[in-house]
Write a structure and sequence with these properties.
Number of domains: 1
Helix content: 25-40%
CATH architecture: 2-Layer Sandwich
Number of helices: 4
Largest sheet: 5 strands, mixed
CATH topology: Nucleotidyltransferase, domain 5
Shape: globular
Strand content: 25-35%
CATH superfamily: Ribonuclease H-like superfamily/Ribonuclease H
Structural class: alpha/beta
Oligomer: single chain
Number of strands: 5
Distance between the termini: 28 Å
Length: about 120
């Protein structure tokens, strides 16, 4: 099952104090999630991925006997989770959570160009 995630930051912090947006979508089952978040671009990316992984973990019946392919457009985060790159200290807590999910949930994490990332559809900055 193909899943997409995306995190991004806005130029200005909103009135609520949040400067970022997190999003994931799972087109095969009609799920789209959007939320505000406070953090830099990489933190928003990790928050999006972690929200998606939590959804998968909490809804195993939707993913039973399915190959889970997760797509994002941030080379850095994908490289870190796939253990091809080292994360800076400030991102280690996020990375550790993602790696923990990888031990529990069989998924593959792949890069795609932003214009192919369905999780970015409708996001405004």
């Amino acid at each position: 099952m193909r899943c997409f995630y995306r995190g991004q930051t806005r130029e200005n912090t909103g009135a609520d104090g949040h400067n970022g947006l997190v999003s994931f979508t799972i087109p095969d089952i009609g799920i789209t999630f959007r939320a505000q978040f406070n953090g830099n671009r990489d933190e928003c990316e990790y928050a999006s991925l972690l929200a998606l992984l939590e959804f998968v973990e909490l809804n195993p019946h939707l993913f039973k006997n399915k190959r889970i392919e997760i797509f994002g457009d941030n080379h850095k985060v994908i490289g870190q989770v796939n253990q091809l790159a080292k994360a800076p200290k400030d991102l280690e807590p996020y990375l550790n959570l993602a790696v923990g999910y990888k031990r529990k949930i069989p998924f593959v994490l792949k890069w795609i160009p932003v214009n192919e990332n369905l999780a970015q559809d409708g996001l405004t900055v």
